[in-house]
Predict the structure of V-type ATP synthase subunit D.
Amino acid sequence: MTKIALNKSSLNKEKLSLKTYNRYLPALELKRQQLMMERKKAEKALAQTTKQLVDVEKLVKSQLPMLARQDFSVENLVKVTDVQLTEENIVGTLVPQVKIIEIALTPYSDLAKPHWVDYLVELLQQMIRLGIEHNVRQLRHKEIDKATIVTSQRVNLFSKVLIPKTKKNIHKIQVYISDQDRASVMNAKLSKIKVLAQKSQGDRFQDV
């Protein structure tokens, strides 16, 4: 641990550091509050997508029980052909955002497939889109949560470590310098008294 120098140069340095910390802390605190709000929004969006996925799956099970038949295959009815993501800046943190989801439908004959296949295809598209959106929202929440934790750690570092430590250093240096100044004044006075005493003694000897 570096020992702090007890002098005016060190005092000025510590005061400058304290000024810097106090200037940055409010901005960090504001960033943390904004990130916490964004994290809440991300949690809500993720929970919403999760519920929508569960609802669609329930719908498929309740309204299309015939899917359990082994003689019917739903493979390749729909296929994801393109997924494009963009980046969004959330309080200085880049997070993914869905831009495009393209799904291709495999042509099928109305005569070869049951009448409910159209409805199934519609639900499958919903499930695919929701699944992709869910994965992206998980990533968004993860990145925002990470940024919130890092920013909170920085706020704590400034408010609970750096600022108190710097204030303590400033106080320590000021006390030391003040003591030195008092000692210097006292020594000067003592020297003056000694000079006067010696002079007084010399005057008395001359009188004798």
Notes: The chain has two helices and two strands. The helical segments are 8-63, 117-207. The chain has a mean pLDDT of 88. Residues 117-207 form the longest helix (91 residues).
